[in-house]
Design goal:
single chain, alpha/beta
């Protein structure tokens, strides 16, 4: 079973999505597991505060290293071995893609550090020897959405998570266009029909059509 360990200030922002639909069923079936570690519970401060002013000035606050490292330490103690993948979301990281998702799906444990505000003290990445990953050429307000996205993408490659292996895009002839009933949709007086080739039952021609649409 693949175990995701998520360090986040806001587990409630990830949990509802992951408990729903396909990923939710995978968790119930014990194909994957997701655990959360709130840095506020690991701070040495009296009031559970983990955001601090950045040295050198600048806008916003930075998450302190001590609380994050203590949370990571607990997560890694629960890991099944020393081979846990440690991921730090950063705009200067490697671009996340299907190849990386497939590679990560073979791990037993993945530690995800979801930063917030202006980010996490850089010493955390250095001490943990993390892999920096970017989910795209944009900046979000926190790492919770990237964490949920990565979990979703990686979980698809875990055997048994998807109902059919053919559901993986890379393993089937697919196209960006899909159709279902009715055969002819009438919308505001105009008819929108399903492409004729999909109605023929001729699998070779249908596969050729899908390949063309995929490369278009």
């Amino acid at each position: 079973m693949l175990h995701f360990h998520v360090i986040t200030l806001f587990p409630e922002s990830i949990g509802p999505y992951l408990r729903a639909s396909i990923i939710g069923r995978a968790i119930k079936a014990k194909k994957i597991k997701v655990s959360y570690y709130d840095p506020k519970k690991f701070t040495r401060g009296k009031y559970g505060r983990v955001d601090r002013r950045p040295y050198g000035g600048g806008p916003g606050m930075v998450l302190e290293p001590d609380a994050i490292l203590r949370a990571a330490e607990k997560a890694l103690r629960q890991a099944q071995g020393k081979g846990a993948e440690k991921i730090f979301f950063s705009t200067d990281g490697a671009q996340f893609n299907e190849a990386l998702a497939k590679k990560l799906s073979k791990k037993k444990d993945i530690l995800l550090i979801a930063g917030h505000y202006e980010g996490v003290d850089e010493r955390v990445a250095k001490i943990l020897k993390v892999k920096k990953v970017s989910m795209g050429p944009f900046v979000l307000t926190g790492g919770e959405l990237p964490a949920a996205t990565l979990i979703d993408a990686v979980a698809r490659f875990v055997p048994g998570v998807l109902g059919k292996a053919e559901s993986l895009e890379a393993s089937r002839v697919s196209s960006p266009e899909v159709y279902t009933r009715p055969e002819t949709l009438v919308w505001k007086g105009k008819k929108h029909r399903v492409p004729k080739v999909l109605l023929t039952g001729h699998h070779k021609k249908i596969d050729e059509w899908k390949k063309k649409r995929r490369s278009a």
